[in-house]
Amino acid sequence: MSQEPTSSLLLSTGQNRRLRYAGIGFFAGIGVVSLAQNDFVAAAHPYGPFVAAACGAVIAIVCAVFALYTIRCPNCGLRWLRWSIGNRPANDWLHWLYRFSVCPKCGHRAN
Ligand SMILES: [Zn+2]
To answer: What is the Å distance from ligand 1's center to 77 Cα?
Structure first.
């Protein structure tokens, strides 16, 4: 009888919060970029739309890079988010990330 781990490795290592906060930050950055199109931003300051677009883009990029580089295997260092985006189907990478229980590189298992 094999002992299959029942817990997600992402959840058991506590990195689901990191992914959630990075996702919220990423979409918040996109939201700030979309503010650049509003008239009240342009009315507030001539450079308002540029500043909103630049700040939003920086927020979104920093959050995405943070998630790509910090969500990793504690045993071998494999960047799980990056691996899942590169190796899973486009409609499954996020779902896989929340349910995988064995590291695809080193075989590290959830407790
Ligand atoms: Zn690993």
So the answer is: 6
